[in-house]
Amino acid sequence: MAKISRRQFLKLSAATAGMGVLAGCGMKTKGIGGGEFMTPTKAVNGKNWGMLIDSSKLTKADIDRMQAACHRAHNVPDIPEKKHEIKWIWDEPFEALFHSQVSPGLSEKWRGVPFTTLCNHCRKPICVKVCPTQATFTNKEGIVIQDMHRCIGCRNCMAACPYGSRSFNFEDPRPYIKELNPAYPSRSKGVVEKCDFCAERLAKGEQPICVEASNGAILFGDLDDPNSEVAKAIASEMVIAREPGYGTEPKVYYRVDLKGGEEA
User: Fold this and answer.
1) Which of 75, 80, 90, 189 is the most exposed place for a label (fewest CB within 10 A)?
2) pTM, two decimal places
3) Which of 99, 233, 86, 112 is nearest to 172 (CA)?
């Protein structure tokens, strides 16, 4: 058998892993080195996907329903031990997500209220810069992808992410999956995972599953398209993102009435 260098091996592994991600998103490949990909004709096209969450329209029950739909579709394990749990979408109180917005004058109606949170798919993701194997990268549509097949479990991305948006499989997650979805790959012990904006659904012309389950509380679309519904809403309303001072430019926005008053 012909020997290959370590560099050649890593390049080959990266190529095949990248094909795995694309195949998982509904794309077809032709040969390891050919680089020819075919996108399904039903794919939703966008240059820079983003999201606007109207928190006034979501209750804890709504968020739980969205999480259940997301986790079921993506084979996210239900691990009871808190320090080992895996989360793609979940809820936190306002003061835990928006530190710089918390002040003595903050309306009491927002304190302790559950807010939906997930990966922010930042325009300038720190996690991508620190990954030694390119297991996490930004695709051409602005989605911060996590290639679980290429991940070596170093957890550099987890340490770098200021939002706590990634989870690590400290143990084999498969025994904790109640209903395995054969259409989406399950993971193994020792890899990091997170929300991927349902790239596999976008490739089929569908919206992210949390958007569908939100009953209109979440808008999703191309932030670089001024005519998209989400871009228009962000431009015309008072919205906030999680800690923009970190310089990562999050692309998950929230509509929040910080002055209080009656519920929208």
Assistant:
1) 80
2) 0.80
3) 86
